[in-house]
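Q: C-alpha cells for this one, please.
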Amino acid sequence: MTSVLRHRCGRALCAGALSVALLSGGTAGAYAVSSPPSPTSTLASPTTGMASITLHANKTAVKTGQTVKFSGRTKGLKIGTPLVLQHMKSGKWTNLRATAKVKKGSSYSILARLNTKGTETLRVAAVKGAAKVYSHTVTVKVS
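A: Here is the predicted structure, written as C-alpha cells:
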C-alpha cells in the first residue's frame, strides 16, 4: 500500500513539474521562434508589454514638395521615446528626416515634405532600445 501511494504522489509531482516546464517553455519558445516583423506588426517587449503605434495622414494625395502631417497614438511606449517616419524604397524600409517623440498622453505628430513623385508607402517606427515597434502603413500619392 505504501509503495502505491508513493508512486501516485511521485506521478502527481512529475505531472505538475512537467506542466509548469511546458507552459514556461512555450512562452520562451514563442519569443525565440517569432518571425521578423512585418510592416504591420508590433513586437512585445518584456518591459513594455505589447506596444503599438497608430498612424494617420491628414492628406492622401499631395503635389511634390507639399507637407503632410502624420499623427497618431502609441501604447506601451514611454513618453520621450523617439519615433521616425520611414518609407519603402527599393524593397527596403529607409528612415526619412522626419522625427518626433512620444508626448504626454501617448500622442505624436510628424510633419514631412514629400518630394518624390509616385506612391509613397510610409510607416512610423520606434526602434530605440530592446523593442522595435512599427505602425501600419499608409500610402500617399505624390504628383
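A few notes: The first strand starts at residue 44 and ends at 45. The helical segments are 2-33.
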